[in-house]
Amino acid sequence: MDTEAAPHPERDRSAAPHSGDGERSRSARLSGLGEPSDEAEPAQSGPGDEALSGDAVRSPWRRPVLLAFACLTFLLLFSGFVLQPFLIPSTSMQPTLQVGDRVLVNKLAYRFGAAPLRGDVVVFDGTGSFVREEPVVNPVTGALRWAGAALGIAEPAETDFVKRVVGVGGDRVVCCDKRGRIQVNGQGVDEPYLHPGDSASRVPFDIVVPDGKLWMMGDHRSRSSDSRDHLGSPGGGMVPIDRVIGRADWLGWPAGRWGSLERSDAFTHVPAPAGAHG
Fold it and tell me: Is position 29 within any domain?
């Protein structure tokens, strides 16, 4: 009797092809749920993936830049059509306005049929009245200066002025009566806003304001170059109403001077000009 055990057939060590999940061992299924298989193919990458990774690096900067651009555009449009901060560059309106003040100019004040009144503090373009010709500037420099002025961080254009309306169309404005006051249509005007120690004017004049024009004067009369200084110029120092940019309604800076600029009641008792209707 052959007692030698029959040799066990050698088991094929290679993994047999499986026909489905049912033939896979439990351990194989569990290992598939955990760590990735060593036989998994590496992910394919291409030029598109590099572009996506580059966008991911740049994206943190893109949103703040776009937001800043949108805010700047909004501020410039708002300043251009509604409310513009205006930097006061000179002493001509002291004590009402000081050098470095930022006034907020209401550009809608005269847009819907209203007209400047005596006592209003207004910002206007003096081209043709206070300035004969608009100065020639470099386009790039001019654009940067315009943007800075529109945001109130740079001085306004050389043609922009801020003054007080003293006479409107039809008014006769005379300097001065026996008490040293400006007379408008024969009525002496007490001007409480004048700089302390200033007279109403050291320059005598007697003018009639044409219709559609304004007679402008600064509150610091001895330091103000205003309509009086352009009596002999074309236009006689009169400012066309359509050159008015807006009315200075509020003080926006410095913080300690925040508040509204109230229209003076100095002209309350001034009669209508001779020949005026209503």
Answer: no
